[in-house]
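hiii so my PI (J.) wants the whole complex modelled not just the main chain, which honestly fair. so below is everything: two entries, each one labled with what it is. i double checked the lines twice but i was tired so who knows lol
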Amino acid sequence: MLKGKVSRLVLYNFRESIIRLMWTFVWFIGITILLPNLFSLTINGLSNLRFNLASLDFTIVSVFFLFADAAIFKYDYFKWTIQNGISRHTAWWGKIGGTLLLTAVIVVIDIVETFARGEQLTNLFGLAGHSFGANVANVIQLYIAFLMVSVTGLVVGYMMALLSKRGKAVVIIGVPVVMIVALTYLARALVRARVDWNGVINFIKVVLGYSNQNGTVNLLNGSLIMIVWILVCLGISYLVSQKLRLRRD
Amino acid sequence: MTQIQISNISKKFGHHNVLQDVSLTLQPNTIYGLFGRNGAGKSTLLNIIANRIFPSGGAVEMDNQSAIENDRALANMFLMSEIDMYSERMKIEKIFKQTELCYGSFDWGLARKLAQKFDLKLDAKFGGLSTGYHSIVKLIIGLSVPVNFVFFDEPVLGLDANHRELFYQELLQTYEERPRTFLISTHLIEEIAHIVEHVFMIDKGKIVIDGETESIVANSYAVTGPKKTVEEYTAGLNVIGHNLLGGLQTSYVYGQLDDNRIIPDTVKLEHVDLQKLFVYLTNGGGKHVEG
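here's the output for the full assembly
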């Protein structure tokens, strides 16, 4: 019974996300193609109209969507599931399942878009794909990278879901302000301190498995880091989702 | 038969004890009333049973298994609360479909019939409805879901007298056709007194009455007569309140009368209805008596 409930929830979440993604594309096309053409039509008439869908980067929009879809409406999702007799545990699995499927769709969008332009599949870490010599490895790496984006969104979303409306407002306004101030001070301090960055750069190169001979990074290193990140995010989002409770705000 | 056992539930919000050591049992196929003043802890108790918030202590069990984070238990209960849990942007029919998706089935026949009777349009958006119609949507779902425990928290909020009457009728009819447990939390005690089989009264986070409606009413008395005579007759009894009008006093007693005391000629003895009993029990003079 429980498995059936989880799979129903996964499919439901996936379907709802796809509908939202389609609407995002509609808005994207509207803003980037229809709106400029509308202005052009009113100013220049029919002569300068351009409808070039190939010029649009749907993958970038999809990746932003992945993060946003994972990050927003988590408290509403909790309210909806608990109202319908679904535990936090099952709701979380339902959301994870939906996210896994949605991420796969966005990888497909990227592949279709790449081939439609006659380009090679995206290599996230330099020439790593070349050293593997296989598109499959690229696709897997792409999937892991996109998944990392969505689970990061999930952590943000579930943490925000713990906050009241006032708390959310404080975080949304306060965090960017604090970040700007902190970064400004940090930048000033670093300029004054005249830090030797070579050590940091070398450390990053080691972590990413950079090869001086080939000038490439090891695909596996980057992927492992992303997998660890994903697992940590999944753990945090699960723990936070178990703390959700109904609020009167 | 499935039952829900609530044992020693307590709940604190900050330093405020909202519920203290609340224990009760919900038997199958019974209509319960949960009565209490504003802030008494009714909604908190229902939210804990339905797993929406966590208790500070105690246990909620269904068939001797914890109901907290238990999908099997949660799928067998439905809480209709004052707080709107549905998306404002969603159409009513979609809300029903989602309920069906999550609970596995849904009585569409009953839902459509009730929607027609309440004059509710299924293609309307939830957010576009009035408070009364929000309640109606939730009531229809509560009556149409395939669960054995339905909890209504202020079910008639915003409903006019006609709709309230219609709801009580439909509740009884659906209960007759498919018996299950209903727990109704409301301020309008008089309206549902004739429906409720068992009563829980909660005051300041504690259960002060837990008993069959008939037995509670049978144990509630209004003793009216001259002040001195009434005071003498009710001395040592569980007097929960009194009224003084001119020289006449009415003392309200909850519990057994002393059979050995002869009722004076000048004293009149009547049973008290649930509403009056509630008012006096929750006005500060209440003592816990098992019904």
